[in-house]
Amino acid sequence: MSDDSLDLLDDLLARAKARGADACDAMAVDSTSLSVSERLGRPERLERSEGGDVGLRVFVGRRSAVVATADRSPETLDGLVDQALAMARAVPEDPYGGLADPERLHSGPLPDLAICDTTEPTPEDLVDRARRCESAARAVEGVTNSEGAEAGWSRARIALANSNGFAHAYERSGASLSAAVIAGEGTGMETDWEATTATHLADLWSPEYVGQRAGERAVARLNPQKPGTKQVPVVFEPRVARSLLGHLSGAVNGASVARGSSFLQDHLGAMLFAPGVRVVDDPLRRRGPRSSPFDGEGVASQALDLIDDGRLTTWLLDSRSARQLGMATTGRARRSPGGQPSPGATNLYLGPGGATPEAIIGAIPDGVYVTTLFGQGVNPVTGDYSRGATGFWIENGRLTHPVTEMTIAGNLKDMFANLTPADDLELRWGTDAPTVRIDGMTVAGN
User: Fold this and answer.
1) Sign of dihedral through CA atoms 203, 206, 207, 211?
2) What confidence tens digit (pLDDT) does each residue in 277-334 have?
3) In 3D, which of 346, 383, 373 has the Cα closest to residue 256?
4) Domain boundary residue among 159, 187, 218?
């Protein structure tokens, strides 16, 4: 791997220090991507892009600023340093700002996370994958139209250095394939989709499998009914259950907690879920889509049990939010070259339970199985939850007819407390959950 980007960052840091920065860090991201789309058997788009950005963050006392550029000419980079320092001197002091504590920075060789696939697909290969995927979807009986199939690949090199002596770089890759189709005619049309993502091309589902699943999902939604309004158990399929983890990660984000804008801000150490429930954030997972050897400040990556045996154990913290809360960073800083670090999750998943999805559904005399969610009706301050949904009605332990135009509502604290995970966890997306059942939600339809 070339050290050109690290040499460039080292030069930027030296210039910033020489011109008055008390501390500084710099980041370079170089990326290549290739994407294609196919619709109704014809190519619609073929794009390739290559680019790179360099960002410099400087501290003058407790004042800081970030400046970024895509131009790496010596003249531009020289001006970048002066601009960053001038901006830092003009902004108010931040008592919590600063680089990560040196003892928390990653040191030694980087762990082998297998997150970069050295195989670069040809445009012809991606076109073939998209074509096969859409063909399989359109071949499903009942599919009448297509919104298309897309295939993509990307690779990036991320380099980070700071004035405390940290300097490392790593590469990562990603691949994806998806299809969306329409079933039915006229006012009775329904649409659905399927997708697969992975860091390595070889780990993607086959195009035929993705397409067939997209087609079957669309056809299964035909002739839906509106449910009545009642309080029943709600079962979230894995694809939508992972959105619940998104709400959890937002609520345990250290920046939100420090601002007082999280409904969980007073719940550190409290039982949020039933005993036995575990939520893990693991940036060191091999081939994980959000794995990295260090965070956006250079802090060594480590796995966290956010929820251990039902109890909330920690927050997602970068250095700044940790200082605000009187804690230590948990190595969850995320950033782009032109932005300040902020905390966020990595490979987040809800641990599996002991029952199969069939057993969980089979114990429900009357309820709903949710396959799609839409709308943004979640209040991060109170935890109130209300979202539009579609899916299938559960009657006597079986999925019966499709249902649509309904709202499911509750409060996230109550939902977490009444959540039961099934045993079908698959680690695919970076935020993953098995099928989950939540008792006591309100379903509003007719």
Assistant:
1) negative
2) 999 999 999 999 999 999 999 999 999 999 999 999 999 999 999 999 999 999 999 9
3) 383
4) 218
Does 234 share its domain with 359? yes
DSSP letter at 185? S
Q: Token pair for residue 149?
A: 């199939």
Burial class (CB within 10 angstroms; exposed 0-12, middle 13-18, buried 19+) of 209? middle
d(CA 184, CA 326) in angstroms, rounded, equals 58
What secondary structure letter does DSSP report for 188? G
Q: Do 256 and 272 have their domain in common?
A: yes
The verdict on pTM exceeding 0.90 is: yes
Distance of CA 322 to the CA centre of its chain: 22
**Are 214 and 247 members of one domain?**
no
Question: 72 with 134, same domain?
Answer: yes
- The three-state secondary structure class of 326 is coil
Give the residue from 184, 218, 252 where a domain finishes: 218
Q: What integer is the mean pLDDT of 248-268?
A: 97
Q: Where are the beta strands (DSSP E) in 259-397?
A: 279-281, 304-308, 311-312, 333-334, 342-343, 348-350, 366-374, 384-395
3-state secondary structure of 334: strand
Q: Which CATH number characterizes residue 211's domain?
A: 3.30.2290.10
Range of the domain at 268: 224-446
Q: Each residue of 80-102: pLDDT tens digit?
A: 999 999 999 999 999 999 999 99
> Are residues 160 and 303 both part of a single domain?
no
